[in-house]
Protein backbone atom coordinates (compact mmCIF):
# COMPACT_ATOMS: atom_id res chain seq x y z
CA UNK A 1 0.00 0.00 0.00
CA UNK A 2 1.58 3.34 -0.97
CA UNK A 3 2.62 5.60 1.93
CA UNK A 4 0.96 9.00 2.05
CA UNK A 5 2.95 12.19 2.24
CA UNK A 6 1.57 12.87 5.73
CA UNK A 7 2.74 9.43 6.94
CA UNK A 8 6.21 10.03 5.44
CA UNK A 9 6.51 13.42 7.16
CA UNK A 10 5.43 11.88 10.46
CA UNK A 11 8.17 9.25 10.23
CA UNK A 12 10.78 11.93 9.42
CA UNK A 13 9.59 14.04 12.34
CA UNK A 14 9.74 11.02 14.64
CA UNK A 15 13.32 10.27 13.53
CA UNK A 16 14.29 13.90 14.14
CA UNK A 17 12.75 13.71 17.58
CA UNK A 18 14.77 10.58 18.35
CA UNK A 19 17.98 12.19 17.15
CA UNK A 20 17.26 15.27 19.22
CA UNK A 21 16.58 13.20 22.33
CA UNK A 22 19.82 11.30 21.80
CA UNK A 23 21.71 14.56 21.35
CA UNK A 24 20.20 16.08 24.47
CA UNK A 25 20.98 12.90 26.42
CA UNK A 26 24.59 13.07 25.27
CA UNK A 27 24.81 16.68 26.36
CA UNK A 28 23.34 15.82 29.77
CA UNK A 29 25.80 12.94 30.18
CA UNK A 30 28.65 15.17 29.09
CA UNK A 31 27.52 17.92 31.49
CA UNK A 32 27.41 15.58 34.46
CA UNK A 33 30.69 13.97 33.44
CA UNK A 34 32.33 17.40 33.38
CA UNK A 35 30.68 18.33 36.68
CA UNK A 36 31.82 15.05 38.22
CA UNK A 37 35.30 15.58 36.86
CA UNK A 38 35.31 19.09 38.32
CA UNK A 39 34.11 17.70 41.64
CA UNK A 40 36.93 15.16 41.56
CA UNK A 41 39.40 17.96 40.95
CA UNK A 42 38.08 19.84 43.96
CA UNK A 43 38.36 16.69 46.05
CA UNK A 44 42.01 16.33 45.09
CA UNK A 45 43.01 19.57 46.79
CA UNK A 46 45.56 18.75 49.45
CA UNK A 47 44.34 17.84 52.91
CA UNK A 48 46.16 18.94 56.06
CA UNK A 49 46.99 16.81 59.08
CA UNK A 50 48.42 18.99 61.85
CA UNK A 51 49.97 17.33 64.91
CA UNK A 52 50.61 19.69 67.85
CA UNK A 53 52.69 18.46 70.79
CA UNK A 54 52.84 20.18 74.17
CA UNK A 55 56.23 20.96 75.78
CA UNK A 56 58.34 18.77 73.45
CA UNK A 57 61.94 19.97 73.24
CA UNK A 58 64.56 18.60 70.84
CA UNK A 59 64.76 15.23 72.59
CA UNK A 60 63.77 13.24 69.52
CA UNK A 61 66.05 10.84 67.70
CA UNK A 62 66.17 12.75 64.43
CA UNK A 63 67.36 15.90 66.22
CA UNK A 64 70.00 14.15 68.37
CA UNK A 65 68.77 16.08 71.36
CA UNK A 66 69.27 13.30 73.89
CA UNK A 67 71.09 9.96 73.59
CA UNK A 68 68.29 8.05 75.33
CA UNK A 69 65.49 9.33 73.08
CA UNK A 70 63.34 6.65 71.41
CA UNK A 71 61.05 8.21 68.83
CA UNK A 72 60.91 5.88 65.80
CA UNK A 73 57.69 7.34 64.41
CA UNK A 74 58.70 10.99 64.56
CA UNK A 75 62.05 9.97 63.07
CA UNK A 76 60.30 8.13 60.23
CA UNK A 77 58.13 11.17 59.54
CA UNK A 78 61.20 13.42 59.42
CA UNK A 79 62.93 11.07 56.95
CA UNK A 80 59.85 11.21 54.70
CA UNK A 81 59.87 14.99 54.47
CA UNK A 82 61.65 18.09 55.75
CA UNK A 83 63.03 18.43 59.27
CA UNK A 84 63.89 21.87 60.67
CA UNK A 85 66.46 21.33 63.40
CA UNK A 86 66.73 25.03 64.23
CA UNK A 87 63.03 25.95 64.54
CA UNK A 88 62.00 28.30 67.33
CA UNK A 89 58.76 29.30 69.01
CA UNK A 90 57.54 32.89 69.17
CA UNK A 91 56.98 32.62 72.94
CA UNK A 92 58.29 30.07 75.48
CA UNK A 93 54.83 29.63 76.97
CA UNK A 94 51.84 27.65 75.68
CA UNK A 95 49.21 30.39 75.42
CA UNK A 96 51.11 33.08 73.49
CA UNK A 97 53.01 30.54 71.40
CA UNK A 98 49.87 28.85 70.12
CA UNK A 99 48.06 32.16 69.65
CA UNK A 100 50.96 33.27 67.47
CA UNK A 101 50.86 30.15 65.29
CA UNK A 102 47.08 30.29 64.89
CA UNK A 103 46.82 34.03 64.22
CA UNK A 104 50.00 34.29 62.16
CA UNK A 105 51.03 37.30 64.26
CA UNK A 106 53.87 37.94 66.69
CA UNK A 107 53.24 38.47 70.41
CA UNK A 108 54.81 41.92 70.04
CA UNK A 109 52.09 42.75 67.52
CA UNK A 110 49.10 41.36 69.42
CA UNK A 111 50.12 42.00 73.04
CA UNK A 112 49.40 38.34 73.84
CA UNK A 113 52.40 37.74 76.10
CA UNK A 114 50.69 35.49 78.63
CA UNK A 115 47.91 32.94 78.79
CA UNK A 116 44.61 33.72 77.11
CA UNK A 117 41.27 32.00 76.71
CA UNK A 118 40.74 30.77 73.14
CA UNK A 119 37.48 32.68 72.73
CA UNK A 120 39.04 35.93 74.00
CA UNK A 121 41.89 36.18 71.50
CA UNK A 122 39.78 38.46 69.30
CA UNK A 123 37.97 40.27 72.12
CA UNK A 124 38.82 43.85 73.08
CA UNK A 125 41.96 43.81 70.92
CA UNK A 126 41.99 45.95 67.76
CA UNK A 127 44.95 44.01 66.33
CA UNK A 128 43.26 40.62 66.48
CA UNK A 129 39.61 41.70 66.07
CA UNK A 130 39.55 40.82 62.36
CA UNK A 131 42.21 38.11 62.35
CA UNK A 132 41.40 34.84 60.57
CA UNK A 133 42.66 31.85 62.53
CA UNK A 134 44.60 29.18 60.64
CA UNK A 135 41.85 26.50 60.72
CA UNK A 136 39.29 29.21 60.03
CA UNK A 137 41.14 30.27 56.87
CA UNK A 138 40.91 26.72 55.55
CA UNK A 139 37.23 26.53 56.51
CA UNK A 140 36.53 29.75 54.63
CA UNK A 141 38.15 28.19 51.57
CA UNK A 142 35.95 25.12 51.44
CA UNK A 143 37.76 22.78 53.81
CA UNK A 144 36.08 20.47 56.31
CA UNK A 145 37.78 21.39 59.61
CA UNK A 146 38.23 18.90 62.44
CA UNK A 147 40.22 18.89 65.65
CA UNK A 148 40.73 17.30 69.03
CA UNK A 149 42.90 18.02 72.04
CA UNK A 150 45.10 21.01 72.73
CA UNK A 151 45.36 22.99 69.50
CA UNK A 152 45.07 26.55 70.77
CA UNK A 153 45.79 26.93 74.49
CA UNK A 154 42.58 25.26 75.59
CA UNK A 155 41.23 23.55 72.49
CA UNK A 156 39.87 25.94 69.84
CA UNK A 157 37.64 29.01 69.60
CA UNK A 158 33.96 28.40 69.00
CA UNK A 159 32.69 27.70 65.49
CA UNK A 160 35.98 27.29 63.63
CA UNK A 161 35.87 23.47 63.65
CA UNK A 162 33.14 21.61 61.79
CA UNK A 163 33.88 18.58 63.97
CA UNK A 164 35.36 18.92 67.44
CA UNK A 165 36.48 16.12 69.71
CA UNK A 166 36.99 18.64 72.49
CA UNK A 167 39.65 18.53 75.14
CA UNK A 168 39.56 16.68 78.43
CA UNK A 169 40.15 19.34 81.13
CA UNK A 170 43.47 19.23 82.91
CA UNK A 171 46.51 17.07 82.26
CA UNK A 172 45.43 13.94 84.12
CA UNK A 173 44.82 11.28 85.04
CA UNK A 174 46.57 11.75 88.38
CA UNK A 175 47.02 9.61 91.48
CA UNK A 176 45.25 10.59 94.67
CA UNK A 177 48.50 12.04 96.00
CA UNK A 178 51.54 13.24 94.11
CA UNK A 179 54.46 10.84 93.98
CA UNK A 180 57.36 13.25 94.50
CA UNK A 181 56.86 16.97 93.94
CA UNK A 182 54.16 18.93 95.74
CA UNK A 183 55.35 22.27 94.43
CA UNK A 184 56.28 25.35 96.34
CA UNK A 185 54.33 28.58 96.49
CA UNK A 186 56.40 31.63 97.34
CA UNK A 187 55.21 33.86 100.13
CA UNK A 188 53.47 36.19 97.69
CA UNK A 189 51.29 33.27 96.61
CA UNK A 190 52.12 33.22 92.91
CA UNK A 191 50.91 30.08 91.18
CA UNK A 192 51.59 26.40 91.61
CA UNK A 193 52.56 23.55 89.33
CA UNK A 194 51.27 20.13 88.38
CA UNK A 195 54.87 18.98 88.00
CA UNK A 196 55.40 15.43 89.25
CA UNK A 197 56.68 12.16 87.78
CA UNK A 198 56.07 8.43 87.98
CA UNK A 199 54.53 5.42 86.28
CA UNK A 200 50.76 6.02 86.23
CA UNK A 201 48.11 4.88 85.28
CA UNK A 202 48.29 1.19 84.36
CA UNK A 203 46.75 1.40 80.90
CA UNK A 204 47.10 3.72 77.91
CA UNK A 205 43.34 3.65 77.53
CA UNK A 206 43.10 5.88 80.61
CA UNK A 207 45.17 8.62 78.97
CA UNK A 208 43.46 11.52 77.16
CA UNK A 209 46.04 11.35 74.36
CA UNK A 210 45.04 7.75 73.64
CA UNK A 211 41.46 8.85 73.01
CA UNK A 212 42.57 11.82 70.91
CA UNK A 213 44.54 9.45 68.71
CA UNK A 214 41.60 7.05 68.29
CA UNK A 215 39.29 9.94 67.37
CA UNK A 216 41.72 11.12 64.71
CA UNK A 217 42.28 7.57 63.40
CA UNK A 218 38.54 7.13 62.89
CA UNK A 219 38.40 10.27 60.79
CA UNK A 220 41.42 9.36 58.70
CA UNK A 221 39.68 6.16 57.63
CA UNK A 222 36.93 8.15 55.90
CA UNK A 223 36.71 9.61 52.42
CA UNK A 224 35.40 13.17 52.28
CA UNK A 225 33.53 15.14 49.64
CA UNK A 226 35.78 18.12 50.28
CA UNK A 227 39.38 18.54 51.44
CA UNK A 228 39.92 18.43 55.19
CA UNK A 229 42.01 20.17 57.83
CA UNK A 230 42.51 17.87 60.83
CA UNK A 231 44.39 19.05 63.93
CA UNK A 232 45.39 16.70 66.75
CA UNK A 233 46.79 18.20 69.95
CA UNK A 234 48.73 15.89 72.29
CA UNK A 235 49.09 16.84 75.97
CA UNK A 236 52.20 14.85 76.84
CA UNK A 237 55.04 15.45 77.56
CA UNK A 238 53.49 18.41 79.47
CA UNK A 239 53.66 17.87 83.22
CA UNK A 240 52.81 15.83 85.16
CA UNK A 241 55.15 13.26 83.64
CA UNK A 242 52.75 10.38 84.13
CA UNK A 243 52.42 7.55 81.61
CA UNK A 244 51.88 3.80 82.11
CA UNK A 245 54.79 1.63 83.32
CA UNK A 246 55.59 0.08 79.92
CA UNK A 247 56.84 3.44 78.66
CA UNK A 248 59.19 3.76 81.63
CA UNK A 249 60.44 0.25 80.86
CA UNK A 250 61.66 1.51 77.47
CA UNK A 251 64.09 3.76 79.34
CA UNK A 252 65.90 1.77 82.09
CA UNK A 253 67.02 4.08 84.85
CA UNK A 254 70.55 2.66 84.78
CA UNK A 255 70.97 3.91 81.19
CA UNK A 256 69.70 7.44 81.72
CA UNK A 257 72.06 10.34 81.02
CA UNK A 258 71.40 13.75 82.50
CA UNK A 259 71.96 16.81 80.26
CA UNK A 260 75.04 19.07 80.55
CA UNK A 261 74.87 21.36 83.57
CA UNK A 262 77.07 24.13 84.96
CA UNK A 263 76.37 25.16 88.54
CA UNK A 264 77.74 28.68 87.94
CA UNK A 265 75.77 29.08 84.69
CA UNK A 266 73.61 31.96 85.97
CA UNK A 267 76.46 34.03 87.40
CA UNK A 268 76.99 36.14 84.26
CA UNK A 269 73.32 36.95 83.62
CA UNK A 270 71.68 40.37 84.07
CA UNK A 271 69.37 40.85 87.05
CA UNK A 272 66.23 40.99 84.92
CA UNK A 273 66.98 37.54 83.48
CA UNK A 274 67.07 36.09 86.98
CA UNK A 275 63.88 37.95 87.89
CA UNK A 276 62.05 36.50 84.88
CA UNK A 277 63.44 33.07 85.68
CA UNK A 278 62.13 33.14 89.25
CA UNK A 279 59.83 30.09 89.30
CA UNK A 280 59.76 29.05 92.96
CA UNK A 281 57.14 26.39 92.40
CA UNK A 282 59.40 24.41 90.02
CA UNK A 283 62.14 21.96 91.05
CA UNK A 284 65.70 23.24 90.80
CA UNK A 285 68.53 21.19 89.40
CA UNK A 286 70.46 21.56 92.62
CA UNK A 287 67.52 19.98 94.46
CA UNK A 288 67.27 17.22 91.82
CA UNK A 289 70.97 16.41 92.26
CA UNK A 290 70.80 16.36 96.06
CA UNK A 291 67.66 14.23 96.13
CA UNK A 292 68.83 11.80 93.44
CA UNK A 293 65.67 12.51 91.41
CA UNK A 294 67.29 14.00 88.31
CA UNK A 295 67.73 10.71 86.39
CA UNK A 296 64.16 9.73 87.34
CA UNK A 297 62.82 13.02 85.99
CA UNK A 298 64.72 12.52 82.73
CA UNK A 299 63.39 8.97 82.52
CA UNK A 300 59.82 10.17 83.04
CA UNK A 301 60.10 12.91 80.41
CA UNK A 302 61.58 10.47 77.88
CA UNK A 303 58.84 7.95 78.70
CA UNK A 304 56.18 10.58 77.99
CA UNK A 305 57.83 11.39 74.67
CA UNK A 306 57.92 7.71 73.66
CA UNK A 307 54.26 7.36 74.61
CA UNK A 308 53.28 10.28 72.39
CA UNK A 309 55.54 9.05 69.60
CA UNK A 310 53.72 5.71 69.53
CA UNK A 311 50.31 7.31 69.06
CA UNK A 312 51.68 9.68 66.46
CA UNK A 313 52.74 6.50 64.66
CA UNK A 314 49.22 5.09 64.96
CA UNK A 315 47.78 8.23 63.39
CA UNK A 316 50.34 8.21 60.58
CA UNK A 317 49.61 4.53 59.91
CA UNK A 318 45.92 5.34 59.63
CA UNK A 319 46.73 8.07 57.13
CA UNK A 320 49.02 5.80 55.13
CA UNK A 321 46.48 2.98 54.97
CA UNK A 322 43.46 5.22 54.38
CA UNK A 323 42.00 6.91 51.29
CA UNK A 324 43.91 10.18 51.77
CA UNK A 325 47.54 9.04 51.84
CA UNK A 326 48.60 10.56 48.53
CA UNK A 327 47.10 14.02 48.88
CA UNK A 328 47.70 15.04 52.50
CA UNK A 329 50.26 17.44 53.91
CA UNK A 330 51.45 16.60 57.43
CA UNK A 331 52.94 19.20 59.76
CA UNK A 332 54.22 18.27 63.21
CA UNK A 333 55.30 20.93 65.68
CA UNK A 334 55.68 21.69 69.36
CA UNK A 335 54.67 24.95 70.99
CA UNK A 336 58.14 25.40 72.59
CA UNK A 337 60.97 23.47 74.15
CA UNK A 338 61.55 22.62 77.80
CA UNK A 339 64.48 22.80 80.20
CA UNK A 340 65.22 19.52 81.93
CA UNK A 341 67.76 20.83 84.41
CA UNK A 342 69.63 23.25 82.17
CA UNK A 343 70.19 26.60 83.90
CA UNK A 344 69.08 25.14 87.23
CA UNK A 345 65.40 24.49 86.60
CA UNK A 346 62.78 22.27 85.02
CA UNK A 347 60.55 24.62 83.03
CA UNK A 348 60.15 26.40 79.70
CA UNK A 349 59.78 30.13 80.63
CA UNK A 350 62.96 31.67 79.21
CA UNK A 351 64.67 33.01 76.08
CA UNK A 352 67.44 30.39 76.05
CA UNK A 353 67.90 27.56 73.56
CA UNK A 354 66.34 24.70 75.49
CA UNK A 355 63.04 26.59 75.79
CA UNK A 356 62.82 28.11 72.32
CA UNK A 357 64.00 25.25 70.07
CA UNK A 358 61.39 22.60 69.21
CA UNK A 359 60.65 20.09 66.42
CA UNK A 360 59.09 21.22 63.13
CA UNK A 361 58.47 18.69 60.34
CA UNK A 362 56.57 18.88 57.03
CA UNK A 363 55.78 15.96 54.71
CA UNK A 364 53.57 15.44 51.68
CA UNK A 365 53.27 16.69 48.09
CA UNK A 366 55.69 19.53 47.41
CA UNK A 367 58.08 18.49 50.19
CA UNK A 368 61.47 17.01 49.27
CA UNK A 369 62.07 13.75 51.17
CA UNK A 370 65.08 13.61 53.45
CA UNK A 371 65.50 17.38 53.67
CA UNK A 372 67.24 18.62 56.81
CA UNK A 373 67.36 22.39 57.33
CA UNK A 374 69.73 23.85 59.91
CA UNK A 375 68.89 27.48 59.14
CA UNK A 376 66.79 29.16 61.85
CA UNK A 377 63.05 29.30 61.16
CA UNK A 378 59.98 30.30 63.14
CA UNK A 379 56.81 28.43 64.10
CA UNK A 380 55.14 31.60 62.80
CA UNK A 381 55.90 30.24 59.31
CA UNK A 382 53.52 27.28 59.70
CA UNK A 383 50.47 29.31 58.64
CA UNK A 384 51.80 30.81 55.37
CA UNK A 385 53.64 27.60 54.47
CA UNK A 386 50.48 25.48 54.69
CA UNK A 387 48.56 27.97 52.56
CA UNK A 388 51.18 27.87 49.83
CA UNK A 389 51.55 24.09 49.96
CA UNK A 390 47.79 23.77 49.46
CA UNK A 391 47.74 26.22 46.57
CA UNK A 392 45.73 28.81 48.43
CA UNK A 393 46.05 32.57 48.31
CA UNK A 394 48.31 34.00 50.99
CA UNK A 395 46.82 35.78 53.97
CA UNK A 396 48.16 39.35 53.99
CA UNK A 397 47.77 39.45 57.78
CA UNK A 398 50.52 36.81 58.25
CA UNK A 399 53.81 38.10 59.65
CA UNK A 400 55.70 34.86 59.06
CA UNK A 401 57.56 33.82 55.91
CA UNK A 402 56.63 30.77 53.85
CA UNK A 403 59.17 27.93 54.02
CA UNK A 404 58.35 26.56 50.57
CA UNK A 405 61.86 27.10 49.09
CA UNK A 406 63.37 25.18 52.00
CA UNK A 407 60.76 22.41 51.75
CA UNK A 408 61.74 21.90 48.13
CA UNK A 409 65.36 21.37 49.18
CA UNK A 410 66.45 24.74 47.74
CA UNK A 411 67.81 26.43 50.86
CA UNK A 412 71.19 27.08 49.23
CA UNK A 413 71.44 30.63 47.99
CA UNK A 414 68.67 31.97 50.20
CA UNK A 415 69.48 35.01 52.34
CA UNK A 416 70.23 34.31 56.03
CA UNK A 417 67.15 33.71 58.16
CA UNK A 418 66.46 34.65 61.77
CA UNK A 419 64.06 33.48 64.46
CA UNK A 420 62.59 35.82 67.06
CA UNK A 421 61.21 34.72 70.42
CA UNK A 422 59.41 37.09 72.80
CA UNK A 423 58.75 36.64 76.52
CA UNK A 424 56.85 39.50 78.08
CA UNK A 425 56.86 43.11 76.91
CA UNK A 426 60.03 44.04 74.97
CA UNK A 427 62.05 40.99 76.02
CA UNK A 428 63.30 39.33 72.83
CA UNK A 429 65.75 36.78 71.53
CA UNK A 430 67.11 36.75 67.96
CA UNK A 431 68.56 33.44 66.76
CA UNK A 432 70.76 33.18 63.67
CA UNK A 433 72.31 29.94 62.46
CA UNK A 434 75.06 30.05 65.08
CA UNK A 435 74.37 33.04 67.33
CA UNK A 436 71.77 34.09 69.89
CA UNK A 437 71.22 37.68 70.97
CA UNK A 438 68.88 38.53 73.87
CA UNK A 439 67.74 42.01 74.80
CA UNK A 440 65.52 42.82 77.78
CA UNK A 441 63.29 45.85 78.18
CA UNK A 442 65.72 47.52 80.59
CA UNK A 443 68.50 47.37 77.96
CA UNK A 444 70.29 44.36 79.46
CA UNK A 445 71.80 41.92 76.96
CA UNK A 446 73.04 38.38 76.48
CA UNK A 447 74.99 36.98 73.54
CA UNK A 448 76.02 33.39 72.76
CA UNK A 449 78.03 31.67 70.03
CA UNK A 450 76.80 28.11 69.49
CA UNK A 451 79.89 27.13 67.53
CA UNK A 452 81.92 27.30 70.73
CA UNK A 453 79.19 27.26 73.38
CA UNK A 454 76.21 25.03 72.45
CA UNK A 455 74.97 25.09 76.07
CA UNK A 456 74.89 28.91 76.26
CA UNK A 457 77.07 28.94 79.36
CA UNK A 458 79.23 31.95 78.44
CA UNK A 459 77.39 35.27 78.11
CA UNK A 460 79.64 37.13 75.67
CA UNK A 461 77.72 40.38 76.21
CA UNK A 462 79.80 40.80 79.37
CA UNK A 463 83.03 41.05 77.33
CA UNK A 464 82.94 44.87 77.26
CA UNK A 465 82.11 45.49 73.64
CA UNK A 466 84.27 42.77 72.12
CA UNK A 467 81.24 41.39 70.24
CA UNK A 468 79.35 44.66 69.77
CA UNK A 469 79.32 44.51 65.97
CA UNK A 470 77.81 41.00 65.91
CA UNK A 471 75.31 41.94 68.60
CA UNK A 472 74.20 45.05 66.74
CA UNK A 473 73.68 43.05 63.54
CA UNK A 474 71.19 40.81 65.34
CA UNK A 475 69.72 43.69 67.32
CA UNK A 476 68.54 45.16 64.00
CA UNK A 477 66.05 42.28 63.68
CA UNK A 478 64.23 42.99 66.95
CA UNK A 479 60.49 43.60 66.44
CA UNK A 480 59.56 47.22 65.84
CA UNK A 481 56.05 46.83 67.23
CA UNK A 482 55.65 47.14 70.99
CA UNK A 483 52.03 46.28 71.66
CA UNK A 484 50.85 46.71 75.25
CA UNK A 485 49.51 43.67 77.04
CA UNK A 486 46.24 42.47 75.57
CA UNK A 487 43.38 42.96 78.01
CA UNK A 488 42.65 39.25 78.34
CA UNK A 489 46.24 38.00 78.37
CA UNK A 490 48.14 37.57 81.62
CA UNK A 491 50.41 35.22 83.53
CA UNK A 492 50.27 34.82 87.29
CA UNK A 493 52.86 32.08 87.90
CA UNK A 494 55.69 34.56 88.17
CA UNK A 495 55.77 37.85 90.10
CA UNK A 496 57.65 39.52 87.26
CA UNK A 497 54.77 39.09 84.83
CA UNK A 498 52.14 40.47 87.15
CA UNK A 499 54.16 43.67 87.53
CA UNK A 500 55.07 43.65 83.83
CA UNK A 501 51.43 43.77 82.82
CA UNK A 502 50.71 46.60 85.26
CA UNK A 503 53.49 48.65 83.67
CA UNK A 504 52.81 47.86 80.03
CA UNK A 505 49.04 47.75 79.65
CA UNK A 506 46.84 50.40 78.08
CA UNK A 507 44.49 50.28 81.07
TrEMBL record:
Quick check: keyword Cell wall biogenesis/degradation in the entry?
no
| Cofactor(s) in the UniProt record | Ca(2+)
Q: Which family does it belong to?
A: Belongs to the sulfatase family.
Q: Give the GO molecular function terms.
A: iduronate-2-sulfatase activity; metal ion binding
From the record, give the transmembrane residue ranges.
17-35
- State one Pfam family annotation: Sulfatase
Name of the molecule in the record: Arylsulfatase A
GO cellular component assignments = cytoplasm
- Lineage: superkingdom: Bacteria
Q: Known PANTHER family for this protein?
A: IDURONATE 2-SULFATASE
User: Which InterPro entries does this one have?
Assistant: Alkaline_phosphatase_core_sf, IDS, Sulfatase_CS, Sulfatase_N
Record flagged with keyword rRNA-binding: no
**All copies of domain Sulfatase N-terminal, residue ranges:** 47-391
Alphabetically sorted, this entry's keywords are: Calcium, Hydrolase, Membrane, Metal-binding, Signal, Transmembrane, Transmembrane helix
